[in-house]
């Protein structure tokens, strides 16, 4: 059992629930605006029924973004694009940031297709950290309800800039995994760049994980976690940027511990790792590689660039501390970050990690294809591989 200090000051005194709109495919602007100003500019007024703090303006950046993405301080032209990161987002001359994807939401509740029930909770209102919780329908639990279930803590992808646990992509994915694997899941909503630059999302996810651990012994604020979770069987998972965060969390558990929690496994699906020097297939796709580099610099305007240890595991001296016995590493044949993902396994072994890594590669597919083509045969196979890993004794 891994041990450390107890949950810090971010632990809420009472459980709060989010009132997510009940209309399917509701544009995310009706939850909070999908357009923002850079932190250096005064905010524009938005008439939204619910303001999620994680999507309000952040404090000014601690470091200066690359000059190519700095917005003008004038608001004379709100239509001129000064930096285009399509299909993720655009920055306008006025400083407004428009998210181009990951803006739709689905409500929580009982999913009739998978018989999985979900709800939204507030982890830290002050810091804008939320989560969507999933459980197999309690009347159909197998094994019986008195037997605890494994826990999956999931962090979504989206280049650290877009998507949420409330989007159709992730809501439907977690419903499928929870139903097939018979686990409880916590899908974390962390604050996103550029309003909240990396590593804000990583820190938010760590706070969320400590909040989850506060339910060890059945003494937390959420009934589902108290009643149904076996904290001796906890998994971390994520895709793309979320897989990057899942790796970070696993390493942090290994270096700091987490009282009462045993991290059994980590699932990294098409993990977003990068570096200053071209690696593997990146050398043959320079234009695409430049876009990935620019996207990272946009999300994390630090002096270390793409060799920051968060994005480049080869620069992380703590990598071998990954606190799990098993790792499932999923890559896609046509994915630009495929070779970085495979290299992650080699780096773990070189840095003294003693666990067992299982690698699965999907042929003829690209980055996070299972989210864009959830009903294709390869997507079903990938989900089954993840489920098999979670159910493995």
TrEMBL record:
Pfam families: Abhydrolase_3. It comes from the Eukaryota. Residues 152-370 form the Alpha/beta hydrolase fold-3 domain. Residues 55-76 are annotated as: Disordered. InterPro entries: AB_hydrolase_3 (IPR013094), AB_hydrolase_fold (IPR029058), Carboxylest/Gibb_receptor (IPR050466), Lipase_GDXG_put_SER_AS (IPR033140). Residues 61-74 have a biased composition (Polar residues). One of its GO terms (molecular function) is hydrolase activity. The active site is at 240. PANTHER family: ARYLACETAMIDE DEACETYLASE, CXE CARBOXYLESTERASE. Belongs to the 'GDXG' lipolytic enzyme family. This is Alpha/beta hydrolase fold-3 domain-containing protein. It comes from Glycine max. The gene is LOC100800733.
């Amino acid at each position: 059992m891994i041990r450390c200090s107890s949950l810090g000051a971010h632990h809420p005194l009472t459980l709060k629930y989010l009132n997510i709109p009940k209309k399917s495919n509701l544009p995310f602007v009706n939850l909070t605006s999908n357009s923002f100003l850079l932190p250096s500019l005064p905010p524009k007024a938005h008439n939204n029924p619910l303001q999620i703090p994680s999507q309000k303006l952040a404090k000014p950046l601690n470091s200066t973004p690359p000059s190519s993405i700095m917005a003008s301080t004038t608001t004379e032209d709100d239509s001129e694009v000064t930096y285009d990161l399509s299909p993720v987002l655009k920055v306008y001359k006025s400083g407004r940031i428009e998210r181009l994807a990951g803006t739709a939401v689905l409500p929580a509740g009982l999913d009739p297709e998978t018989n999985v029930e979900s709800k939204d909770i507030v982890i830290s209102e002050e810091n804008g950290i939320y989560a969507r919780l999933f459980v197999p329908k309690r009347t159909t639990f197998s094994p019986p309800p008195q037997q605890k279930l494994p826990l999956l803590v999931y962090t979504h992808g989206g280049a650290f800039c877009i998507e949420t646990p409330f989007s159709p992509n992730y809501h439907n994915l977690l419903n499928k995994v929870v139903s097939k694997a018979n686990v409880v899941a916590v899908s974390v909503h962390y604050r996103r760049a550029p309003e909240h630059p990396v590593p804000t999302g990583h820190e938010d996810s760590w706070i969320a994980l400590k909040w989850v651990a506060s339910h060890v012994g059945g003494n937390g604020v959420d009934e589902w976690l108290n009643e149904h979770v076996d904290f001796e069987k906890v998994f971390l998972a994520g895709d793309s940027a979320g897989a990057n965060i899942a790796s970070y969390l696993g390493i942090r558990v290994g270096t700091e511990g987490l009282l009462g929690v045993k991290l059994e496994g980590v699932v990294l699906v098409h993990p977003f790792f990068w570096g200053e020097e071209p690696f593997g297939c990146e050398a043959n796709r320079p234009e695409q590689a430049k876009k990935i580099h620019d996207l990272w610099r946009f999300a994390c305007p630090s002096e270390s660039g793409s060799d920051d240890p968060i994005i480049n595991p080869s620069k992380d001296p703590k990598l071998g501390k990954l606190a799990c016995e098993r790792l499932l590493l999923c890559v896609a044949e046509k994915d630009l970050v495929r070779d970085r993902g495979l290299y992650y396994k080699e780096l773990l072994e070189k840095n003294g990690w003693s666990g067992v890594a299982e690698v699965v590669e999907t042929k003829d597919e690209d980055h996070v294809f299972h989210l864009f083509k959830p009903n294709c045969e390869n997507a079903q196979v990938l989900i089954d591989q993840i489920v098999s890993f979670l159910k493995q004794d």
